[in-house]
Amino acid sequence: MTTSGVPSARETDILRRPRRSDATRATILAAARERFAADGYERATIRAIAADAHIDPAMVMRYYGSKEQLFAAAAAFELHLPDLGDVAADRVGSTLVEHFVRRWEGDDTLVALLRASLTNAVAAERMREIFDEQVRQVAATIAPDPPEAATRAGLVASQMLGMALSRYVLRLAPVVALTEAQIVGWLGPTVQRYLTG
After folding, report:
1. Distance between CA 39 and CA 58 in Å, rounded?
2. Contact 111, 169 (CB under 8 A)
3. 109 and 129 belong to one structural domain
């Protein structure tokens, strides 16, 4: 700091740089997301995540405390649900199903979270939070009776999670064989009824 109280050029440069701990946290989270997606919750280890991040396992524990806490942090993501305000009223169900199928198909982390939520309380709570908070907001904007938004969102989640469990975790052959268009055709009307019926 200069005598006038204004930071020097070097101090300003230091203040503008991202903190090393922030970069370390980001590196750990990126490695954890990839490892959990590849191995699932049960088989992924702190040691493997640390190796992927090129750091000591003790650093992972220092920043996140436990494997459960790391998984919960790594699974903090948005469903990026579409804005249904511009969608024709009779297409909101199929639009939402299309979106979910694309999310499941393109995001191994979401599948890993679902797989882990079957056996791990922290992962199950994280999945509940994601679906409760994000799907309920969508339901509240569409539902004819806003107080029912939580119930409607729960029913939508039951369809989406049930499909994902059957297709990506249990890999039931008839469900795996469905095309995206067929899934939308089967589930779209049901989700439509849950949202607007």
Report:
1. 21
2. yes
3. yes
Residue 2 lies in a domain: no
In the block, residue with structure tokens 């640390």: 50
Domain boundary residue, one of 40, 74, 108: 74
Alpha carbon distance 36, 6 (integer Å): 46
Query: Where among 74, 101, 126 does a domain terminate?
Result: 74
Per-residue model confidence (pLDDT) at position 17: 46
The 10 Å Cβ neighbour count of residue 109 is: 15
Count the domains in the chain.
2
**Rounded-to-integer distance, Cα 21 and Cα 33, Å:** 18
Residue 148 CA to residue 88 CA, distance in Å, equals 21
Is residue 161, in this structure, part of any structural domain at all?
Answer: yes
Highest mean pLDDT out of 1-15, 34-48, 74-88, 146-160? 146-160
Domain ranges, residue 98: 84-196
Beta carbons of 104 and 164 less than 8 angstroms apart: yes
Average pLDDT over residues 1-19: 55
pTM over 0.85: no
Q: Can you state the percent helix, strand and coil of the chain, rounding each to 5?
A: 80, 0, 20
Specify the higher pLDDT residue, 93 or 13. 93
66 and 104 belong to one structural domain:
no
Q: Hey, what amino acid is at 43? A: R
- From CA 73, how far away is CA 16, in angstroms rounded? 25
